[in-house]
Amino acid sequence: MAYTEYYTPTHIYFGRETENLVGKVLKEKGAHKVLVHYGSGSAEKSGLLGKVRASLRENGIEFVELGGVKPNPRLSLARAGIELCRKEGVDFILSVGGGSALDSAKCISYGVPYDGDVWDFYNGKLPEKRVPVGAVLTLSATGSEMSNSSVITNDEITPNDKFGSNTNMGRPVFALLNPELTYSVSPFQTGSGSTDIIMHTLERFFHSGADLDLTDNVAASVIRTVVKYTAVALNNPCDYEARANLMWAGSISHNGLTNMGFESIGDWACHRLEHELSAIYDVAHGAGLSALWGTWARYVKYVDPSRFAKLGKLVFGIEDASADKAAELTIQAFESAFRSFGMPVNIPDLLGRRISVEDCRMLAEKASLKGKKTLGNFRILQTEDMFQIYKGAALL
Amino acid sequence: MAYTEYYTPTHIYFGRETENLVGKVLKEKGAHKVLVHYGSGSAEKSGLLGKVRASLRENGIEFVELGGVKPNPRLSLARAGIELCRKEGVDFILSVGGGSALDSAKCISYGVPYDGDVWDFYNGKLPEKRVPVGAVLTLSATGSEMSNSSVITNDEITPNDKFGSNTNMGRPVFALLNPELTYSVSPFQTGSGSTDIIMHTLERFFHSGADLDLTDNVAASVIRTVVKYTAVALNNPCDYEARANLMWAGSISHNGLTNMGFESIGDWACHRLEHELSAIYDVAHGAGLSALWGTWARYVKYVDPSRFAKLGKLVFGIEDASADKAAELTIQAFESAFRSFGMPVNIPDLLGRRISVEDCRMLAEKASLKGKKTLGNFRILQTEDMFQIYKGAALL
After folding, report:
1. Can you tell me the ipTM of this complex?
2. A212:B3 CB<8 A
3. Is residue B234 a contact partner of residue B187, using CB atoms and an 8 Å limit?
């Protein structure tokens, strides 16, 4: 019996100055003692952390803080967060930042009530309990504010592993989305975030099994919106309309809406292939995705060129009598969009240097767990396929 | 401080045979003793109630039953449900049916833990507690399965009042959406349901204040989908793809997605004007809405013809240099769609007879609570405006 679950319990507050609601909302959601979890100094310098602290104090909510989350958030910091939460009796975790702070917060939230090693949850085990998580979001990218996902890099082993955990326990209780907080996001991070948003939609669009036409149309609306407003935001970083559209696109591209009614939750091969790149080269996730997608798409498009053609028609208005030709035009249009975001469309562009055939082989071996795992379902990829895709993206 | 809340906690299970999950899902959601609430005999005759009972028994869930919900669900039956739940110690209410059974279930859910008169909640009071509600849906129309709304007709007074209650307490805990269960919906009810879905989107599209372009595009996707697949479903009632698209369109047209990021929750004047029609003439809600919308639209379009033009372009591809002309073409295109659904576009068509100017006056007096209430916000309507709209729709 095949069915789609759609479960998006996250209570969203969207609009200007919504970060000031944080104390009130935490109180309503039952928080008494909060871990405020954040990344670099920018949340401090911008005054955002100050506002958050003031709102918490006004509402009589105790809190402790843990900063220092890096992009590709690390297991070691999450472990420190788990210890701190236990010691301090924290009953709610507040992420202040982008997807990295949020993913780290999710990891902590599973670890606090768990007797074993939290890394278990990034190796297939499902958490049964969590400390609830809320978010003040400062970046439109990962969609983690409504998603069931978190991705953690294990920095305790060499080479690093970057694994994900997908569970409804990972859906935040609330998220405060103020597009103004993304005005200061750099052009590169804006482009990388927009790529991530598009990729969350593309990973779902290509899959095995039945679709739902309404969902295809919603997905195309998300992608069209991102293409349109990324250009506006790159031109004027303080354009509210652009930042607002990108922010909501980020949330709905990854909350399940764009695979509603589909027989599978998507292909996700590019995400897995990218995780190896960012685990090893520590690149921005969005940039890693755009460096791979075109090669992946050309490698698999023969499976169903009409699916690519439908996408191209809905997003870019591409019409061609030949599905195969339309599919190629669609892939080119996406590569062109990624380039306009300032993103690489191959690995040398991504890293600023070439990698070797041996590197590609090593990446493919890691991605497939030495041949024990296939990736994707639009086309199922074996280790050799992964190697070919890395090699193609490496221009070898 | 203006912001949009988006809160859709309802856990959706979408696909063929999902009704068979009902016992398992009720158990997971903590139900012990359930009120199974339904409408006419069709749920019995089709075997759906039998399946629901079997699934409940399999999962060791006790239940009592209350059938007899009518379209435009009545307060008197809800009162009987409240008494029954109290007597039997019911801790979960399961609606099996369309929006009427669900709205009646919501009314019962507020009433059980409340000491006062449940009708208070349809006169502006907000419930603080409820018994949780779940749904097996058999009709694509009201969107009540994910919405915060319920509408109840007070049959204890003459003429009847039909009032709504909007509260997050009204959002069901889960809903099982099997499009196959709507195969047996009649052509008239299919057309009326599709009109209701479109109207939930139109009521939000027209409002005062700022919009969000992504939301406009999602709204247009919903409407285009409904126009396309209503034709398919009327032609072949057992077309799964058509029924699936209509079903999901119904849910997202009324869960808040189509006004996300808007400064207001929409206009809603047509809904209020229609409630008077169905309270007094007991007509199908969707049919009442289509009988009024064109007249409302022509009455208010001067406020912002470009908003109508944007809608026409996104939904029907209407292009015209003059916003005013494009607005008129858009209104005509919607009337034409409603007619193609078998729906009336004026009051005589709706009732099969004419009403008098005095009737229109009485309806306007009721809708405005004798001049104490205005309706709408795209254009704020006074009693006299309501009278003009009823008169126009009555072809007087």
Report:
1. 0.95
2. no
3. yes
